[in-house]
Amino acid sequence: MSVGELAGKVVLVTGAASGLGRAASLRFASEGGRLCIVDINADGLAETARRIEVAGGKCTSMAGDLGDPAVCAQAVATAIDAFGRLDVLCNVAGILRFHALEDVTTQDWNKLFAANVSGPFFMMQAAMPHLVESHGNVVNVVSSAAFLGQAYTAPYGATKSALLSLTKSLAMEFMHKPVRINALAPGAMLTGMVDGLEFPEDSDQSLISRYISLRPPSQPEDIVEPLLFLASDRARSVHGACYIADSGITAG
């Protein structure tokens, strides 16, 4: 695994216990990257680490809740302690909930913003000095919900719009520094994030159908391809951008 697009690079992936985060971690390792993987799900994280190591990759891991800024700082320190540098930060971790407006609790709101906005923000804050030093990059995973009003996902959509705004604002703030900051916006994906989720009772199906693609949902492995591109040196001229990979949901 000494050759590949990420050979010699250290990549920190959040949300690596399942879904897109796991698929990205496995692919990045196959491309020669040395992985630091992070997730709140310790068991799933251990399985991802096992798969990387069985395939001959190099990996360190840390379980923790990235809604806590101290945990974010610790995650970056784990990567630096293990490998001595950091080249790529992929903020993949996130949660999705369906709510009618009247059912959204303070706890629901705070939990979504902690996972989907605060975590990525404090990860970037902790990682940025190391990424500037290595001429590295950040990829934030947002969603097609950052571009479309979607019934019953108002708090979730607000978090993804906020993360997209953070991406663009920090890209401007670091315009004269040797670092790239970009976003990737998938649409529907067949991952564990949607397992067990249900729309509110008496939901208006005509509203839900407006943001369901006419094409099938993506597999995580499909979304890894544009994620790898943004994380790699092939995207050296891409900064402050958002690549959309949503099977046409936002096309019209």
Automatic annotation (TrEMBL):
Assigned protein family: Belongs to the short-chain dehydrogenases/reductases (SDR) family.
What keyword terms does UniProt attach to this protein? Oxidoreductase
Cited InterPro entries: NAD(P)-bd_dom_sf (IPR036291), Sc_DH/Rdtase_CS (IPR020904), SDR_fam (IPR002347)
SUPFAM superfamilies from the entry? Answer: NAD(P)-binding Rossmann-fold domains
Origin species, per record, is Croceicoccus esteveae
Q: What class of enzyme is it?
A: oxidoreductase
A molecular function (GO) held by this record is:
oxidoreductase activity
Q: What is its EC number?
A: 1.-.-.-
| Official protein name in the record | SDR family oxidoreductase
Has the keyword Oxidoreductase been applied to this entry? Answer: yes
